[in-house]
Structure formats: structure tokens, C-alpha cells
Amino acid sequence: MPSQPEIARINGLALHAADEVLSADELRQRACSELLRQAAIAKCLLPASDTLSTDGVLSEDASSAIEALLEQSLAIPEPSEEACRRHHAAHIALYSTGERIEVRHILFAVTQGVDVVALRNRAETTLLDVRCHDGTGAEDRFAKAASTLSNCPSGAQGGHLGWLVAADCAPEFAKELFGHTEVGVLPRLVHSRFGLHVVEVLAREPGAEQPFEAVRGAVAMSLRQKTYVTALRQYLQLLAGQADIAGVDLEASETALVQ
């Protein structure tokens, strides 16, 4: 008889129900949230009566307490003028305006109850298949795959999304597509809040480069966000080192807290 999967716990508190199966990323997300919730209780920012929900949803009080905890615990210095100028010079394409790209995609949507591992395998197989064809043959493999596999209405048009600017896309999707020079099927899956995308950039129209003075605020905000993510990751590592953790691997997480 197969053994039941281990219930992941933080200091003895279960992160999920015994019959609930979570992906590794979802499990790490819940573990990080629970580490912060318990830290907020320890700092008297949240009543000890606040209970952990096994569906992973924090109470409104817990969310507010975690926000206060992070404001107290994370030191986020303002980026220097020199650091901002270096960042702008190294990533000037990110601060251009008016860049447009012509794109088509195949969406493998992540929905409730979907087998994420199987979904990723299908997406990876499709990516490999369309990359093996240069589009010069009579059959357009990308359009055929989009019409049969994509969970986006654009599949009926071979996955074609038309000409886009960054504001047309979810931020995490735009980050992978804009400010780069690649044309053709991207060699990697693009992750977004909607799922996994096989993406082909058909054409690019570069935007107009903006001088540092015009985008100083956006540059500083970007550097503050990078510093925040690093500080949050280090703080979570500190909390994890002081906690009794079972059934979840926090070391494998590339980002401290998703969303």
C-alpha cells in the first residue's frame, strides 16, 4: 500500500490538508508566508489567536501584520546617484519608450487542479518541436500547435497576438519580451500569471532611448525593488534557520516570496 505524502509543517503547524497536493513552488510560498506570520506573532504585531488556514489564505490581520513586520525588519537604503546611472547605462533598452513587438504564442494555462509537472512537460515538448522547424516548409508547425494546444483564444489565429507594447502585457510577460534583441521562437518557456507560454517574436521596432534625467525615478524604484527582494530573501533565510521545518525545501527557492 503506498505511503501517504508527508504533510509539510512550520514549527509543527500543517501547511496543507492531508489530501491536498501542492506543487513545490506553492508549498514554498505557503511556507514563507507562514514563517512571516509566526514572526509577526512573536513580535506582538499579530494576536496569537490568529490561526493558520490550510488553504494558504492569510487573514486580513495577518497580511497587515506581515506588512508592518517587514517595514520594521528590512533596511532598504536609497540607491545612490552613481548606482542609478550605472544601472540605466547597462539597461538602457528597459527605459526606452515606444518599443513594439509582433508576437504569437501558445499558452499552457495553469488552472486549479492541473498537473503542473505534466503541463510543463507538454509545454517543453511543444517548444522543442516548434524550434526544430524554421517555418520555411509548407506546414506552419507553430500555428498548428497553437490552434490545437493553446488555451488562449488567439489559438484560432495561430497564436498571433499582433503588435504589442509593454503596457499591453502582464508585467512579468513584458519583462521577458521587451528590452531584448531576440527574434524568432524564444529558447525558453515564458512564465506569467496565466501559465506557461511558448513565444515567437516575429518582429521588433525599437523604442526611443530616454535620458537618465527623464527616467531617474523609475531607475531608483527598480533598484529599490532589487534591494527589497534581496533583503526579504535574507530575512526569510534567518527565520527558516530558527524554525522547525518539515516536508518543504526552502533552499530550492530562487525568490523569497512570489507575487
* Number of separate strands: 8
SSE succession: EEHHHEHHEHEEEHE
As a percent range, the share of strand residues is 5-15%
Mean pLDDT: 87
Number of helices: 7
- Give the N-terminus to C-terminus distance in angstroms: 38 Å
**Rg, alpha carbons:** 22 Å
Biggest beta sheet attributes = 5 strands, antiparallel
**What would you call the shape?**
flat
- Quaternary: single chain
The portion of residues assigned to helices is 40-55%
What is the structural class? alpha+beta
Poorly predicted segments: 252-259
Explain the overall architecture:
The protein is of the alpha+beta class. Helix content is 41%, strand content 14%. Strands 3, 4, 5, 6 and 7 form a 5-stranded antiparallel beta sheet that branches. Strands 2-1-8 form a 3-stranded antiparallel beta sheet, with helices on one face. A hairpin with a 2-residue loop joins strand 6 and strand 7. Helix 1 crosses helix 2 and helix 3 crosses helix 7. The longest helix has 31 residues.
Write the layout of secondary structure elements.
Blueprint (H helix, E strand, L loop, with lengths): L8 E2 L2 E2 L9 H19 L17 H14 L7 H10 L9 E10 L6 H16 L9 H9 L10 E5 L6 H7 L6 E2 L4 E3 L2 E11 L6 H31 L2 E2 L13
Antiparallel strand pairs: 1-2, 1-8, 3-4, 3-7, 5-7, 6-7
Helix pairs in contact: 1-2, 3-7
